[in-house]
User: Fold this.
Amino acid sequence: MSPDSRFAVGELLASDDFEKGIASWRSEVEPGGKVEVRGAALEIDVPGGCSVWFTKEWVGAILIVFEATVVSAGGPNDRVSDLNCFWMATDRRSPADIFATPRGGKFAEYDYLRCYYAGLGGNTNSTTRFRRYIGESGNRPLLPQHDLSAKEFLLLPNTPQTIELLAAGRAIGYYRDGRQLFAFDDPAPYTRGWFAFRTVHSHIRISHFRVYRLVERLNRGN
Assistant:
């Protein structure tokens, strides 16, 4: 079921339960970090910045769904923070191929993206934010209504949560466990691009990754 009643969930475009490794993913990791599969989950265990990209580009209206757990079990990187992601992303420096421009995981390197970004529990689990990146170094626009700090919008450690990312023309949405945290009506939407998990100094476990086509529902009066 689509989290937005204006759209129906259509064809399953991709799925990954991480049972056959991470051949469909490409990691950009600062030194010392590990991205690997453990027990049918993608394990991101990093002391610095890290972006893990799905290698396929998406075009048109899509819904991205995955389950994520931020691990707090006494490990060196078990800082409950930064369950983040980019979607519908292109790099201004190589818009036709996001992998044609090298990046090493440091956050500032991603300023050149044009994309949607959400940071759940950023800044040591004190903020949850949505941004529309515009591809300019040092400029990551943030609207006041997209800057949340109430406890209900932050992370719980060791708790699986379902994240849904919607991009369907002007309609952009971010949902956690069925609750919409962000809605954005984009007059100049990004309608193609790549997806990545993003974090910094954290330990995150990802499972049940899915991408679906979204289909706009007909008006009831038609």
